[in-house]
Amino acid sequence: MEQYLESLSVTEAEKLKKTILSLFRQTCILQEKYDPVTLVPSDNEQFVICRTHRNFIESYLSVLGCELLYDSQEHIFRLVGDGVEVEALSKETTIIVLLIKMIYRDKIMGKGLAATVTNLEEIREYGKNTNLLNQKLPDSEWKSALAVMKKHQIVEYPGALRDLEDDTPIYIYSTINLYCSSAMIHELIEAYREENAENEAGKEDSYTNLDE
Length: 212
Hints:
Blueprint: H1 2-7, H2 10-26, E1 28-30, E2 32-34, E3 41-43, H3 45-52, H4 54-63, E4 66-71, E5 76-81, H5 91-111, E6 117-118, H6 120-129, H7 139-151, E7 155-156, E8 170-172, H8 176-179, H9 182-211
Antiparallel strand pairs: 1-5, 2-3, 4-5, 6-8, 7-8
C-alpha cells in the first residue's frame, strides 16, 4: 500500500488520503455536490478520486473491516462494514429525518428532480400535519439534526447553522433514500403517532385529576 502511495504525486496522494478520511467521517461520497451558497451542482473531486483509486481504497478498507460500495443508481460511493462508526440519533433527529424523507418523496413525485428544496418552515408544517412534531423543539435539537444530516450528505444549506432562517433553502440529496426507506417511514410514523397519542391521553388524565 505504501508503494502505491509513493507511486503517486504528492498532491494526488494527499487527495487520496483526504478522500478516505471523508469516507469515514461522512460514510459516502456523492458524484455531484451542491454549492452551499448558490445550491448549484458541480462535480465532486473526491468522487473522481474514489473511481480512479477504487482498487487501492477497497484493499485498504478491507484491512479495517470495511467495504467500499458503488451505488450506480444514486451515483455515490458508500462505506459499509463492521468498522464503520454508527451514528446514534435522538428521537427528535430521527423524526426530522423522517419528515425530510416525506418532503423529498412528495416533491419528487409531484414536481420532479429539480424541486428537492425545503426549509425549516415547511419541515415544521409537515411535522404538524402528520402529528409527528407538535411541540416546539429547542434550537439545539434543530441544529443537531441538520448538522448530522449535512455530515452524512443528506442535506446541504448555505452558510452556518446559526444563520438559518425559516425560509432559508435546504437542498435534499437523494441519499435520504439510503438512510430512510419507505417501509421504515410507515413503521416509525405509526410508532411515533401511537406514542404521541398516549402522551396526549396522559395529559388529559392529569387535567381531569386536577379538576377533581
